[in-house]
Design goal:
81 residues; Non-ribosomal Peptide Synthetase Peptidyl Carrier Protein, Chain A; globular
């Protein structure tokens, strides 16, 4: 099991790779409302989480409100490990 800092670093790295944005300074930014992440980005995010962390989240179970901020993504990933 990864420790929380590793999960956070990996999630932030994936988000930066996918969006070109460094969101580490605002972990509560709503990625969808701010136009940083869209539905295609969400799918790419889930695929990268699966590839890098072994987290499986079926798109059918993806609840946008649970994944809308970097902090929520980190918490969700940690809960799935």
């Amino acid at each position: 099991m990864l420790i929380m800092d590793d999960v956070k670093a990996t999630v932030l790295s994936i988000l930066q790779d996918l969006t070109g944005e460094d969101v580490s300074s605002n972990m509560d930014a709503n990625l969808f409302d701010e136009g940083i992440l869209d539905s295609m980005g969400s799918v790419q995010l889930l695929l990268e989480l699966q590839n890098q962390l072994g987290i499986e989240v079926p798109v059918s179970e993806f609840e946008r409100s649970e994944w809308e901020t970097p902090a929520k993504i980190v918490a969700k990933v940690a809960s799935l490990q």
